[in-house]
Amino acid sequence: MKERYKRYLKIYLIPIFFIATSFIFTTFAWFAYSGLSRVSTEIDVKAWYIELKKDGQTVSNDIVITLDNVYPGMDPVDEKVSIQNKGDSDAKLTYEISSIRLMDTVIDSASYTSDELNDRLSHDYPFHVNVNLSKNYVLHNNDSSMFEVSVSWPLDSLNDALDSTWGNDAYTFIQGEKAHKASDPDYNMRPVVQIIISVTAEQYIEESTASDTKYNLGDTILYDVVANQKCNAVSSTCISTTVIDYNSKLSDTTVTLLPSLYNTFSEGTYGNYSTALTTATATWSANTRMLEASDLLKIISLDVVNSALTASNISPQIIGNLSYGTRMTTEIARAITLNGKYEFLNNKYPFLDHSGCFWTSTNYNELNGFALAKKDANKSEILGTTKSTTCKYIPVIIAPKANIN
């Protein structure tokens, strides 16, 4: 049996802490706030340098987030760690939520999976903690990935009662910690919330569950839609496309490609999307389908600072993790109920930046369908658009990897 080797990692990581002064309760649903500071303010992006050696072992680092002072309406706070591979071997990257302590209640991996904990942090509390790893591997010789954590608390969450309950409980908890400290000067006061995230780097092994390094979100691929294979120069049938899969696996036999928005497309009203797409791709050998709102949300939700749900009766709310269970479905339903829309930065996803509007196949309500459109020079939107509006029809290509490799 072949022996699989893992590598030593030499790690230099400045721990991440969100530290503040106090979680002060008022008689209403809101809380006073006196500022948030960081342990280190010299650099915005901290670095983790790994160097892989043969015959080693996996090493991980715990990132500890402590929250004492967050409040409704706070500006989102984020921290970034650049993970750089200085060695001569490729590395696989993973992270997991190890534990969450909410005052005296501990929620950990003994009761929930890391994915469940991640989902709960993103959606189930008045404040939201969102985590993203830009790439699940770092190749040898200076490849990098970005690990990012954001903390936010929307001002208008539509749940003042829950905000007040948290304020009451946090106030009681802090008073208890102060009393304990007063009776025992050696006691270390606990923060209101503590979250431990374990980030791990280990040898990259080409197995079915490993990330496919040939297909990254945002990569450009020239694809001949008639020959149904990769091509080398743009022509009437060889078009520029973008990979829209996040963390494609080696076991995946296909890759999802979005044609450049600057290609020529037919256009019309919402109800004619399916028929028009069938007509437009009649001579294609490539397998296609209609664009869905979830395709776009999977992409833009990876920005845990700027991509947000907005509506007239709520403050902007970071979209957050949508990958667990039925969260995507419930999130879209929430946007529809609130008559809301999604906004994201154009420079973050330039392949979605275009002055026109593009239909998705996702229904918004009886009168509207979800469409992609540009809001202004800085932002684009995914929003409910009147079904009689004329927008472009774009095909999503499902391409066999065997026809590209």
Taken from the alpha-carbon principal axes, the silhouette is: globular
How many strands? 29
Instruction: Quickly count the helices.
Output: 5
Largest sheet: 6 strands, antiparallel
Query: What class, by secondary structure content?
Result: alpha+beta
Indicate the mean pLDDT: 84
Helix content: 10-25%
Radius of gyration: 24 Å
Beta-strand content estimate:
35-45%
Low-confidence stretches: 1-44
Strand ordering within the main sheet: 17-16-18-19-29-21
Task: Report how far apart the termini are.
Answer: 29 Å
Folded structure, characterized:
The chain has 405 residues and is of the alpha+beta class. Helices cover 15% and strands 38% of the residues. The protein contains 5 helices and 29 strands. The strands form 8 sheets. It has a 6-stranded antiparallel beta sheet. Strands 23-22-24-27-26-25 form a 6-stranded antiparallel beta sheet, with helices on one face. The radius of gyration is 24 Å and the shape is globular.
